[in-house]
Amino acid sequence: MRVALFVTCVNDTLFPRTGQAVVALLERLGVAVDFPEEQSCCGQPQFNTGYRRETEPLVRRYARAFHGYDYIVTPSGSCAAMVRDNYPRIGARAMSEGRDRGLASVAESVVPRTLELTEFLVDVLGVTDVGAYYPHSVTYHPTCHGLRMLGLGDRPRRLLEAVRGLTLLDLPGAEECCGFGGTFAVKNEAVSAAMGADKARHIVGTGAEAVCTVDNSCQTHIGGTLSRLGAGVRPVHLAEILASTEETQW
Amino acid sequence: MSGGTYLGMPAFPEAARAATRDERLRGNLRHATHTIRDKRARAVAELPDWAELRAAGAAIKDRTLRHLDGYLERLEEAVTAAGGQVHWAADAAQANEIVTRLVLRTGEREVVKVKSMATQELGLNAALERAGVRAYETDLAELIVQLGDDLPSHILVPAIHRNRREIRDIFAERMGDWGRPAPEGLTDEPADLAEAARLHLRQKFLDAKVGISGANFMVAETGTMVVVESEGNGRMCLTLPETLISVVGIEKVVPTWRDLEVFLQLLPRSSTAERMNPYTSMWTGTSDGDGPSTFHLVLVDNGRTDTLADEVGRQALRCIRCSACLNVCPVYERAGGHAYGSAYPGPIGAILTPQLRGVDTALDASLPYASSLCGACYEVCPVAIDIPEVLVRLRERVVEGGEATVGGTRVRIRPARGHAAERAAMRAARWALDHPGALRAGQRVAGRMRRLQPRRLPGPGAAWSRTRDVPPLPPESFRSWWRRTRGESGEAGR
């Protein structure tokens, strides 16, 4: 089984510890993981802002970088959803515009192999107890694209419930968007901030020490809002919780 | 008493910003949307075959839209055979002109109206007023909006932005200008407010010789019109007047009665969270000695055929105006309906308005961006309109232009103004992302300079850092860490 990590541009640049956590976690579970250096970004910022054609080179790059791998594992619900939902659309549109040059077929080729981290753990490896230890109270925010586009369901929750030492606290209004939305956060700053404030209030209300997601792009918004409020609640990616053990506090 | 107008409204972000600071509005919207949202979820959960119904609703609409021309002609034949007269309107001006002419021909100067999204879209009331005709809204919430010189802010509950205290004041101050005044000492108890509206409207129903309605569905095989409602005002307007004029968008046609079975389950549960709506009125042309003796059907295009021409965007025409998407939308809940600048607020408005009106104004070009793409709207839509997919499609039309159908002609539209800097930034970002070497070099520079990282960002970044802290830059990117610890070619990949 050849497994590649698609770390995502956000994690690569801003949250390398999340990528390192995925590597540590998978290696602890006996999975050898590669990091093809040709990878960069899935193209979601361009695509979701309306620059579909700007994403085409990134679709080709993604397919090239991960050619030959059985699984492409990524610690981001929205980047996985971008590949699985939108790559085929980008390919189909290019084809209908007569500019395909193989784009549609390479786009389709990565869809079944691209998995969000919790899907890979639960569905492929068949584990929910990854042997993690994290002695903190945590609340979980299901990010929108993981929840609705990928249909992650209760996978993240089952993984969290199996972590020793962890107290999982219910988040009110959990399934409501945090207000990030990529360029939405700056184009509609006021509404985005209002959504973020409500999310932060709910998080603080749980009394949790940390808020966990499977998406660091949403976490940038949630964490930035909490930090500005001086809330003292730590944003943490699920991979970092799962990578933690008695020996290694992540 | 012209009421408000959507003309000249600011772009969505500015209007929404003002709304987010209006605590009373936020409170009204939060309470109302969460109440309906929760009720809808319970009503939908009762049906074990909801997913199948939803798929059937989408399929019936898609099939009908594919053969829309044929079904509309069949409808026209059936309506005409049943004693009705059918009129075709290409745009709002034509529709308003036809309705105005039909009303004036009766010699009447007052009409009663059933709540209708199509006539809101057309601005019919204002057109009638210019011709000296007073149109009385008889739906309770539309009455509140009309008496308050206000604009609707929700498809189902147009006065959702008002609380009962505000409604009491509007009734007490304004009812007398329009007819029977509110009773002395009116309280803000819902029963008292409803009674005041009943008394005020009763006179209108009894006096009216002309009624104007829309329709939720039109059945092509028999020419039957269908209006569903909760208050009984519709039944009054549809049966008491001598002349009935129904103004309906062409996408409201369904082929057969059998198709109604699906929609009469989908609509009430999605809309009012009821198993069945209290009043379902159906009529076919005219009947001697029963109901209106004259029936006109005005079929309205107003951008619908252009919308139909877009392969992705056309799914918006499946919409049955239930407003479930508004009630779950976190953006609508905080921005309110007025910020969307049209009769169609919320997620469905953000994809309908730019297709029906185009993306030429700053407001209309901003609507596809009035969403975080969270997908809650798609999840609840009873006819499975993938609203995020259409939003992204329309964003592309805004920033890149391209082919579109306008006024029935295929044209190449130019990108909207004001996106040059963004386009340049997106291209530059894509270039860097397509050159990982450059990306790594940039990350390395940023890592070295990270102690200089400002807490507040300049330029466009200020829109981020005004309300959110910027995450601290790490000393080393992931790819540098990998190369340092795992070697050039990722030799850990055994």
Automatic annotation (TrEMBL), chain A:
Protein name: (Fe-S)-binding protein
Domain Cysteine-rich: from-to ranges: 3-83, 138-222
Any one GO cellular component localisation term in the record: cytosol
Entry superkingdom: Bacteria
InterPro entries recorded: Cys_rich_dom
GO molecular function terms attached to this record: oxidoreductase activity
Organism in which the protein naturally occurs: Streptomyces sedi
TrEMBL record, chain B:
Any one Pfam family match given in the protein's UniProt record, by short name: Fer4_8
Region of interest (Disordered), residue spans: 453-494
Start and end residues of each LUD domain: 72-288
Molecular function as annotated in GO: 4 iron, 4 sulfur cluster binding; metal ion binding
Residue ranges constituting the Lactate utilization protein B C-terminal domain according to the UniProt record: 393-484
GO biological process: lactate metabolic process
Compositionally biased spans, kind Basic and acidic residues: 485-494
Keywords recorded for this protein, A-Z: 4Fe-4S, Electron transport, Iron, Iron-sulfur, Metal-binding, Repeat, Transport
UniProt domain 4Fe-4S ferredoxin-type: residue ranges: 316-385
PROSITE patterns registered for this protein in UniProt: 4FE4S_FER_1
InterPro entries: 4Fe4S_Fe-S-bd, 4Fe4S_Fe_S_CS, FTHF_cligase-like_sf, Helical_ferredxn, LUD_dom, LutB/LldF, LutB_C, NagB/RpiA_transferase-like
Protein name per the record: Lactate utilization protein
